[in-house]
Amino acid sequence: MAIPTFELNNNVLIPAVGFGVFQTPPEETTAAVTTALESGYRHIDTAAAYLNEKGVGEAIRRSGLDRDELFIETKVWISDYGYDATLHAFDKATGKLGVEQIDLLILHQALPGEFELTIDAYKALETLLADGKVRSIGVSNFMPEHLTRLFDATSVIPAVNQIEVHPYFRQSALLEANAEHGILSQAWSPIGGITFYRDGSHGSTLQDPTIGTIADTHGKTPAQVMLRWHLQQGRQVIPKSVTPSRIVENFDIFDFDLTADELAAIDALDTGVRGGPEPDVITRENFGRDIPEA
């Protein structure tokens, strides 16, 4: 089966569904990614701060797949922001992943309190793009005001903005800002299950009755319905799991369509409450960590 794709703003194609490894322990990463690749996934999303790029690289090596069959994405952590540091972050990432070129390299956070470092880091990404070392560049967790500041100081519009989006936190204004500038919205925690509502203020999306009813109508699971909701609204998704059956389930979403009323019903579940950290609280003092060499 040909995997549906989205076209990025520099004409690069990205699979509509990728496989995420956020919070996947390094010792479990190779097995999880291997299962994903065997199940049909061709986009793997990792990050320097996840400390599991080597496990991703090992799974890629073992897969036997040609490099041009894969779409590899990783992220530069705030500890490696700055022009020269970010160029070196690329070297660390490629060394761990065992590849020479990265398909999509993005900045992990906006770091608004030291945005001059963010600008310098993004300029390094622009250099890597111009040199052909990466195929596309982008950002993650950038709010509209961060994007405006970035546009004012750089020349390449990000290809993607990877952000928290799920039925209980849709970020409609940010989705609109991304679309206005031709930036693909890439949903992390697309079913709301990674860092969602740690204070217990709301139940899980997986038990939501509206989503459950829609799932029953289509003979699908709540997770599959949520992932389909994203795709039909033009968002790329990167669900994560270490459970083989769920890895397969999350990829089996191309054989049904939600109606306009069903999409609207899921939209209406938005609470406006973020599950992950507020982008403006991310500082090197609070969130900095050394990223090991390859």
In short:
With 294 residues, this protein is an alpha/beta fold. It has eleven helices and ten strands. α7 (209-218) packs across α8 (222-232).
Task: Describe what this molecule looks like in 3D.
The chain has a single domain (5-281), classed as TIM Barrel, CATH 3.20.20. Helix 1 runs parallel beside helix 2 (53-63), helix 1 (26-39) packs across helix 9 (244-251) and helix 7 (209-218) packs across helix 8 (222-232). It has 294 residues and is an alpha/beta fold. Helix content is 39%, strand content 14%.
SSE arrangement:
Layout lengths: L4 E3 L5 E3 L3 E2 L5 H14 L3 E3 L7 H11 L7 E6 L6 H15 L4 E6 L7 H16 L3 E7 L3 H10 L6 E5 L7 H9 L3 E5 L20 H10 L3 H11 L3 E2 L6 H8 L8 H8 L16 H4 L7
Parallel strand pairs: 3-4, 4-5, 5-6, 6-7, 7-8, 8-9, 9-10
Antiparallel strand pairs: 1-2
Helix pairs in contact: 1-2, 1-9, 2-3, 3-4, 7-8
Pfam families: Aldo_ket_red
Protein name: Aldo/keto reductase
GO molecular function: oxidoreductase activity, acting on the CH-OH group of donors, NAD or NADP as acceptor
CATH topology: TIM Barrel
Distance between the termini: 35 Å
CATH architecture: Alpha-Beta Barrel
Helical content (DSSP H or I, runs of 4+)? 25-40%
Q: Number of folding domains?
A: 1
The largest sheet is: 8 strands, parallel
Number of helices, counting only DSSP H or I runs of 4 residues or more: 11
How are the strands of the largest sheet arranged?
3-4-5-6-7-8-9-10
What does the average pLDDT come to?
95
- The CATH superfamily name is NADP-dependent oxidoreductase domain
Proportion of residues in β-strands: 5-15%
What are the secondary-structure elements, in order, as H or E? EEEHEHEHEHEHEHEHHEHHH
Uncertain parts: none
CATH class: Alpha Beta
- The outline comes out as globular
Label the structural class.
alpha/beta
Number of strands: 10
Rg: 18 Å
